[in-house]
Amino acid sequence: MSQWLVLAIAMSVACVVVVAVVLLRSRRAGEDEDTSESPDVMEYMTMMIGVVYAIVLGLAIAGVWEGRNGAQADVQQEAQALHEVSARAQVYPADFRNLVRSDVDAYASFVVNTEAQYMQDHGAISPRGTELLDKLRTDVASRAPQSDLESQTYQPIVDQIAAVESARNSRGQAAGPTMPPVVWFGLIVGAVITVGLIFTLQIRRTPRELLLAGVFSALIGFLLFLIWDFDNPFSRGISMTAQPFLDLFPGIGGSS
Length: 256
Prior knowledge:
The protein is built from eight helices and no strands.
């Protein structure tokens, strides 16, 4: 089932539940119940709780958005550093240059065509990808420079491989959910309390009030879905892609 369909269903259910509770409460209200006004302290407390929960929601959204941007930056850095290794190998003789570029293409192809799906399924980077990167590092390190130009190029290539590994490790750390369970507990309980406070204001069943109650509950549901989706940058609806690798290594998209 599409995650967007799940979102639509969740928002619709939230609206229906809130409207149904309002209608049921209105029907069961006693004849002597005064629904014309609410105590001032109740309105003040409702407003303050809503403001506090809005701040918490904003901080949570900012946190997962920053994590998503960081994950995207890690992918870009990894692809760029790998491309630099391939480009700097130009100074080597043809046989060794082809070996290095073959290792680079094998690693990039694996990341795009295999590891991206592996991260979605397992929430971690693949050991096979680590083996391919180790092979690249070993091949580069096992050949001593044989000219001044190779000597000048050797260390920058090693540094770029280290940058690939660093970005890869950061990508692995962002592969699974990053939001602590206690934060999710607070967000969900806060949502229930905030929506529940609608009923403390003695809301009636006029079309305008029912519409506002439904829209408010749907908005809370959407924001929680947004946080949940951004919390795992590589596995959910608005997920990271391997596009930086495809941009820098256009020939690997169709390999398996």
